[in-house]
Amino acid sequence: MVPPSRSLEDFTDLVSLAEVNQRDDPQTYARLRGRWGEVAPVELVPGIPVWLVMGYQEIIQVSRDERLFSRDSRHWRYLGKLQGSGSPLALMMTPQEHSHFADGEKHRRLRAPLDDGLEGLDEHRTSRATQAICLGLIAKFADRREADLVTEYAALVPMLAVASWFGIGTDDAGRLMEAMASLFVPGQDPRPGMEIMQQILSGLILAHQEDPVDDLTTALLRHPNYHDASEVTQAIVQLLAAGQEATVAWIAQTLRLILADSHLGGRLRGGRLGVEEALDEVLWRRPPAANIANRYALADCEIAGTRIRKGDALAVSYAAANTDPRVHGDDPWLEIGNRAHLAWGAGPHVCPAQRPSRTIVRIAVETVLTRLHDLRLAVPAEEISTAPSISTVCPAGLPVRFTGFS
């Protein structure tokens, strides 16, 4: 257990958050719990420590209490050091003018248009568009009878699908995806990527102002909560960025577990488990957004016996919470249909796009399983590595073979 009087600066030789994700092993959290309790010191990047909150109830406490824990990283005493480190994470954690970084009344004002707009999405139209995207991607590799289901499929479906909500075409969606990816390449100047994003989104906003159509861009432009087009642009960036990495990971992790885990794959093929239930099992066992550093202490406080100082950053570990022995049993059958996991977050910042994201992932997984015949891994399961990330757990690649398609 962490002595209550010790601060983050007192610890050395800490495991990095990226290493925790890379291991993708529930036992990693068990070992951290055994050493530190429900709150463990870890490194975000070398020389920049954060608290990793692992307990289910403790994460709910942190996520719900806006009086003590802010989403605005300007309250973090290490923000300046991170910005000067050259780490690509600096751009990700520098506050922007959208609801992700806001608290209280400002958050509620900026969040309401997202909730209203996403609630108004036509589910049938979303399903048809996603199905067409999935089939179009499969058509590009179907004749080869082999593919990488991460780089050629899972990494592409979410951006193309979410872009369609806003009326963004396939070509511009591809350019946006490349531009966003370029922002987080170590040593690469992010300005060209930001200019491409600004060009595409400015054109999108202008076109919708001149000729409104029935889509999410128009819904956001018409919402009274937004003061100007800049706030609409920020909201679009937020949805495109927030949904991409985690949704890619959810698709890829589900396909990996179905193909590599005889327990899950056997139950699915045997009809004892549906795709919807399989998606929930993945959210319990391997939540895509495993560890998210996005809370900052507004005052000295205590969590599970650990003293937190004002200005400390906290990373909430949804992966650890879902294995918390106080809430998670040993019998996997008891979890079927149980959606009490924290994969979507908790509190005011709970994910606003749960329903459409689930639709995208379900269709992406079902399309692969039903259209590719005799689908199997092309390499031993133990050779599948995890892509480097401080937040998501996603296979770096998923090479497969199949005998035909329909």
UniProtKB/TrEMBL annotation:
Gene3D superfamilies in UniProt: Cytochrome P450
Per the record, the domain of life is: Bacteria
Extract the SUPFAM superfamilies matched here: Cytochrome P450
User: PANTHER family, alphabetically?
Assistant: CYTOCHROME P450 YJIB-RELATED, P450, PUTATIVE (EUROFUNG)-RELATED
| Family the entry assigns | Belongs to the cytochrome P450 family.
Name of the molecule in the record: Cytochrome P450
Which species is listed as the source? Answer: Amycolatopsis pigmentata
